[in-house]
Design goal:
about 325 residues; alpha/beta; binds NADP nicotinamide-adenine-dinucleotide phosphate; 2 domains
């Protein structure tokens, strides 16, 4: 892979072995790159990483002497981690990478001078970055450069993106654009928007007396089948594939769900992301021990939709 030449012969370190960490480390290791995973002492992932064939060291040791370091610990842990284990061990001219622009954009990490700073943000969850790679394909990545001491940081970012994503595609962006669009997309559409939409549809049918199992199929299970068509072929081809009845319902009803008011709310959500209010609230939540998030997790894991879903998935995916 010609694009990999900007990583070849370099010592690569991936900090963290979670969702993204295992995918970046293993994909690059499979391509013959020299990868070390940096983990905290006593990490529960240590044995797992070692068993998968990559070198493992404590974060400080893994960063010391490394040429390219990708930080793949959770966003909220990165500022402290950078100060305590990474900054002092970064050598002059090292390339420091992020998979999301949050900490650089909101100035929670001010990288020291004399190093290069880049971003490779895969457009997919970590387990998909690995799974798709293992099938011989890849996910596209956004790349950006924040600090370019060596003059070739974009090339290193491209090489990393091409390596983990098998040359599928790179879009150049900025830390600001990636951070703001990523936060907006996951809140308004991909995670917050979609889960509330499925939940509201399910609740409406169940409250009206319909069988929860049928409601689950209609409002949750089939979501993937429709989205897969949009993902692979676009809106027009998806609409071509559904019945005329479904297509007519799509046109007349979609706009009753996503109203002008919803679009106004989307603008407010984007505003809070742009002015840093969302980031401040999230940081306060992490400092408060994730109290609100833990309450929400408990509420959802106890919900009817999860109980029905678990039964339905056992039926659909039985071996
Ligand atoms: N999740 C995604 O699909 C996704 C998609 C695009 C971009 N990103 C970005 O990728 C980055 C990593 O996210 P992620 O979801 O992959 O993270 P994650 O799975 O939550 O990361 C877990 C890993 O980080 C380590 N870790 C956790 N807290 C730590 C700390 N305080 N000090 C040192 N190591 C710590 C864990 O160590 P132990 O093993 O010891 O517990 C584990 O190896 C983030 O910047 C995120 O925004 C993620």
């Amino acid at each position: 892979m010609k694009e990999l030449k900007f990583l070849e012969g370099k010592k690569l370190t991936v900090v963290g072995y979670g969702s993204q960490g295992h995918a970046h480390a293993l994909n690059l290791h499979d391509l013959g790159m020299d990868v070390t995973v940096g983990l905290r002492k006593g990490s529960k992932s240590w044995e797992k990483a070692e068993n998968s064939g990559v070198k493992v060291a404590t974060i400080g040791e893994a960063v010391k002497g490394a040429d390219v370091i990708m930080i793949l610990a959770p966003d909220e842990s990165q500022p402290e981690l950078y100060k305590s284990e990474i900054e002092e061990n970064l050598k002059e001219g090292a390339y420091l990478g992020f998979a999301h622009g949050f900490n650089i954009h909101y100035e929670r990490i001010i990288p020291k001078k004399g190093i290069n700073v880049f971003m490779v943000a895969p457009k997919g969850p970590g387990h998909m970055v690995r799974e798709i790679f293992e099938k011989g394909h890849g996910v596209p990545c956004l790349t950006a450069v924040y600090q370019d001491q060596s003059g070739d940081t974009q090339k290193v970012a491209n090489a990393w993106a091409n390596g983990i994503g098998r040359n599928v595609g790179i879009i150049k962006t900025t830390f600001k654009e990636e951070t703001e669009t990523d936060l907006f997309g996951e809140q308004a559409v991909l995670c917050g928007g979609v889960t509330e939409l499925m939940q509201a549809g399910f609740d409406t049918l169940v409250e009206a007396g319909y069988n929860p199992e049928v409601a689950y199929f209609e409002c949750v299970h089939e979501m993937k089948l429709i989205i897969d068509m949009v993902y692979e072929k676009g809106f027009a081809k998806m609409r071509d594939s559904i019945s005329n009845t479904a297509e007519y319902g799509d046109y007349v009803t979609g706009k009753k769900i996503i109203t002008e008011k919803t679009r106004e709310v989307m603008k407010d959500i984007l505003g809070d992301i742009q002015n840093g209010q969302f980031a401040n609230k999230f940081i306060a939540e992490t400092e408060n021990g994730y109290k609100f998030m833990n309450e929400e997790r408990a509420k959802y894991s106890d919900s009817k939709i999860e109980a029905v879903g678990s039964k339905m998935r056992a039926m659909v995916f039985k071996k």
